[in-house]
Amino acid sequence: MPKRHFHALDLSRLFAAVMVLFWHNQHFFVPPVERHFNVNRKIEPWYDALGWFYDHGHVAVQYFWAVSGFVFAHVYLADASAKSRFWPARIARLWPLHLLTLGLMALLQAAYVAQHGTEFVYHTNDLKHFLLSIPLMQYWGWQEDQSFNGPSWSLSTEILAYLVFWLVLPWLRRAPLLLALPLGTLLLGLMLDEAPNKDVLACIGYFFLGCATYAAALKGWLRPASLLPLGMALVAIAFALKASYRGGDAATVAGTFAVLFLALAADLSDERGWLRFGQKLGDASYGIYLWHIPIQLALVLLIDATLGSRDIAREPLFMLAYVAMAIAAGFVSHARFERPAQRAVFALWGRWKDRRA
């Protein structure tokens, strides 16, 4: 591909992370209960204007999976040394922040239990799920529910997508579209058919259709002139499916690739690099995703200990402050923790390789 970076895709990752913030904003209204509690999301700030994000922000997770597949294909298909450095790169990128927020959530949940006698939102916080969470294996099919830093469930499923990608990489490099397109389509078809462990199937399916999108663009089959009408058509299909009975998962598939196609069209049209600022913004998305629940729980503990009522969460300024705190945490985390941690992991990896040489 003529582009090294896809800045519109980077920018879209930031927007996707913010969408997840809006979806999880409802947690502020979950009282101390033993299990699930259905929140009337219409009480959230500016619901009339932001209702779609409050109601559907969770679908950004599927978009993350598809973008990951596209980016991985771009980074690794032409790299002969990809298999040897693949897992060190994944460990350096994912685990330091995951382990930090996992430990922090264990402490914050313990404080919430001491205050209220039950957990905050995610109730399956036992030793089994903590140990499974350390290697990001907590959502591979043996879980009882989401646990600790709940959003990390999607990272757990994505590890399996990485594993499949790594295993098939030699064949994928020879025929990316021929392998990725049927594999992704098959797995999403099984997901739509409610096959067991559908979240894992969905993750791998979205990931490989993201790879297939890159392969089609690599062949020159996807250009702005075709991506724009395809993307708009998929938007219309997504809304039509959402309006139909049990069309939610299919609508998410259509909507995910609608946004991917439109973002890719913007990137391929950006010959002057006007969107290059998107790379820096997209870098914060991982931190936003993993920090927003610990920030939320810390705020809830503070509110419960001082105000005694969470009605403040109905105020627009409170919602804006929470979103701003999570976004700021994403940027600070990337610059001050994630990047230094990556360098440390790579340094350890280099020393280990030198000892073996």
Describe the 3D structure.
With 357 residues, this protein is mainly alpha-helical. The protein has 13 helices and no strands. The chain has helices at 7-24, 47-56, 60-76, 82-116, 127-133, 153-174, 176-192, 198-218, 224-243, 248-269, 277-282, 285-306, 316-356. It is globular. The mean pLDDT is 93.
Beta-strand content bin? under 5%
Q: What would the average pLDDT be, to the nearest integer?
A: 93
Tell me the Rg in angstroms. Answer: 21 Å
Biggest sheet overview = none
Structural class: mainly alpha
The coarse silhouette is globular
**What's the helix-strand series?**
HHHHHHHHHHHHH
Q: Return residue spans where pLDDT drops below 50 for at least 5 consecutive residues.
A: none
Oligomeric nature of the chains: single chain
Count of strand segments: 0
How many alpha or pi helices?
13
Instruction: Give helix % range.
Output: over 70%
Termini separation: 35 Å
